[in-house]
């Protein structure tokens, strides 16, 4: 019941996307029990059918049901195979990290013994041996940077921050850290809390089969905990259909292809388009931490180009805005390119009008709303920022435009996308305030403008996991009335539109 994500890479370099099995004997909701009773009554009623036409209809119904169940069985087999391959991938990764760690430890002890007694070294090393050991260690560290996770993101340790300068102790500690992180990830995955979370999603998906997604408190609560990797593609598609139900019905099948043909016709006609030019420039800068988007000739980059070209013709008012490439790329991690196209449409429609306009007027208005909310909910932080005359929008604007893709690791921003697809723009205010709340202690300790900027420009230092972020966003930030946000937004939009008119007439800057 899962959909394959469009990730690349060999099995030796990556593990299979996170998946899980449906627990045997899993408790289902009372609704599912009621459905079973209704199905049982229907069977008894069918036994009394004598009309030939009705019997034919029943046969056709059972045939269709059988085909559907067969497809579900095939998907379940794929899930089992994914689980098995994923388990083997974890075992390989553990073995590699453990082996690397013990190699480092052995080399460190060799060097330590050499310098322990200068007069009588316990181990005599030939000239150049120390340099050779250091070179091997550094080469091992560089090789580890080429490995990626299931989605194509590079697996980097402390070397990505430049903390390791080739020192043997630093590199050995890095391997120890990686091993500890892998063991901790495995422990959390097998924890009771995680298993209950997976069972809750299993129960929901089992009851959801064959029906469109509809808004419910159960679904809202589940999505706020994050969508499991194995179900993310499926749930995202359901959320897209829920958001764009009328548009999908209006445009029909083949709309994406027609947008691509329109782009091709424009190019063949020699029409110069600044949006297309900007798209081409931004492609390889989209997700620099992901190998699948690093090569301009890679399949993912080609898909991304087509999605952005098609969107440019779909919404001529927006055309293209920097940041849309990141949103489309995130969609392509899980969806095929046509679904990624609809994902991009759903994402932009869940934002208020003017968010991706050339002047970003909608996004600028929301930055003013955020400033008011920070003053209300985080008064000490707001006062500290005013003291140093720090403009919060310099940092938070990109959070709202791209769901924090630029400032948080993918393990954290992907669940933010989950929530945004269900709750829309309001969720971005919750997460922005939560990020600021988690950065607040460091910001308040900052004594200069530069240190304040350093804290807010790299929130990943303080936001280390999604669970903690969600706890702050959905509990500590309550109450959070939507009407208050809409009222403030309308006020600031009116002011900005007046300022924009003044700029047009007399010149100036909206920001």
Automatic annotation (TrEMBL):
- Extent of the signal sequence: none
Is NADP found in the keyword set?
no
Ordered alphabetically, the record's keywords are: Coiled coil
Q: Which residues form a coiled coil?
A: 52-86
* SMART domains hit by this protein: TBC
Where in this chain does the record put each Rab-GAP TBC domain?
226-424
Q: What name does UniProt use for this protein?
A: Rab-GAP TBC domain-containing protein
Origin organism of this chain?
Ancylostoma ceylanicum
Q: Which gene encodes it?
A: Acey_s0083.g1650
